[in-house]
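During data preparation, a discrete fold description was generated, as reproduced here:
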Amino acid sequence: MPPLCKNAFFSAAALLVALVAIAPAASAADLIEVYLDQAKIMQLPEKTASIIIGNPQVVDVAMLKGNRKVVLTGKGFGETNLIAIDKNGEALVEAVVKVAAAEKNLIVQRGLDRESYHCNPRCQPTVALGDATRFMGEASAQVSGRTIAATGAAR
């Protein structure tokens, strides 16, 4: 490489490093972590009028009345954003919501088929996004049968 090209390359690389160093870093408060199929309560700023969720297939939000709290429920794996706005449409809070699998889950991969188990302390089948259709059907049928038996016995 000619000396002029080398100098230009190193100058561009140094500029990029400097820009990354001075760019504002996201703080820990800008990231909200929620587990799949679990809920988390979050306090909102005083003047919050509305909440916007970028992708409601990743996280669902429900505002609680009168106390500026919301319930975030993980619906799908991934990340989306949450914006709280005031009555004039001004953003009060902007955050990334990350939905991840619960920490005590065990994933069993059988070829292309996946099965999820929740372990605390014994491992029991649980239905999770990405599991094999057969496994999900069997686990869901067991949960439904148990619910029907429990509600039928209560009557």
